[in-house]
Amino acid sequence: MDEYNPLRAQVREQTAALDDLTRRIRDNQEELDWFDGFDEADMGAKIAAAEDRVRVRDVEVAAAHSEVVAARAKVSDCKKRAIALQKRAQSKKDGQIGLSPLGSILGSLGDLRATRKLKREVTALLAVVKTAEDAERAVTQKRDQAEAEANGLREELARHAAFDPAAAHALLAELTTDAESRTAALDGLTERVTALDDQLAGPLPELISKKRELSDFEGRLARALEYQSRLDATSDKTARWRIHKEREDDLGHTPLRDVIREAQRAIPPLQRAITKLEERVRDIVLDHTRDIRKLVIDGNNLCYVDRDVVGLWPLREVLAHVDGQVEVRVFFDDSIVETLNLVCADQVYKMLPDARIRIAPPGTRADEEILDAADEPGAYVLSNDRFTDFPDKPAVRESRVLRHQIDDGRIKVRGLQLDTVYRTSL
Hints:
Blueprint: H1 7-36, H2 40-95, H3 101-162, H4 165-200, H5 203-232, H6 237-251, H7 256-289, E1 294-298, E2 304-305, E3 308-309, H8 313-322, E4 327-332, H9 336-339, H10 346-351, E5 357-359, H11 367-373, E6 379-382, H12 394-397, E7 401-402, E8 405-407, E9 410-413, E10 418-421
Parallel strand pairs: 1-4, 1-6, 4-5, 6-7
Antiparallel strand pairs: 2-3, 8-9, 9-10
Helix pairs in contact: 1-4, 2-3, 4-7, 5-6, 5-7
């Protein structure tokens, strides 16, 4: 359906924009609520307490670090004693040359026991060092957390001091106004989507059905012609039998010539019907998707049904229908005074007090002024005039002229989705 109703894509875009606005409004309101509920005295107390915790952690970190330094010093001392023992053992070994083997062995055993003792002591001290380092890291992490908490509180206090509530309220008002405007636009767009879907409910399913039917006939015709070509290309009985069997499984038992004849007869009227339906669908979509930002009305043109004068009543219905939606200008030829049996042009202004009216100078027509007023994109003319004298005017060249129909007491403007009975009295 999106292929035929492009307004749905606009609805998705507008919905996404409105969702973003809603999020910004919520965030802005939360900021204002935070500011209004902020207690500076309470925050000062929280910061002081956090700073006290940092100082306590500083003392703990210093104490833990002292433990690490002391443990490392013990390890260093133990290692020095081990080195001294090794040197002394080597000196003994050098001085035992010529002594009895038993004396050498006893001396070596004593040094070995001393060395092993020192190794055990070093291992134990290294474990103490690791425990002290782990404790220092843990208390340092707690100290960093306390500092981060204190910094966060200070930043929040600074943010409160720098916060501009007047600017926040102004932004909230701006966002809210924008959201209300977009909501109204989205509601209108959604109504247009529904209106277009309703208008397409008749021709679109028929168009889709006709296209499907055409596709089926074209497919059958193509396959039938292919089978016929293959049959014409061979005289082998077995091969022809296989082709006939394949054709029967695909197209049934109807003779190929009948399948071809049926498709050839069915396809042209289907194509014509599809073309008409596509034009109808295209016109419906165009009528409902025009981006009309300005409407320039040929006032005289709306005062007649054929040659009969019906006055300003149809025009009033058009003005009421588009009121507040688009910019509107109404142009009259100077003959409008005579047409409405008025005394002077001022009476026209009084009869349409809320409309922007322009009456052409005596002896002139308003056609060129009408077209000039609708020269920018988004500006449309409402008139049944063909403006054949002005083919190069943008509104004529770009088909930005809307037609109307007035009969049986109704005013219909398909391009404005207007179809209503017009009043004949105030």
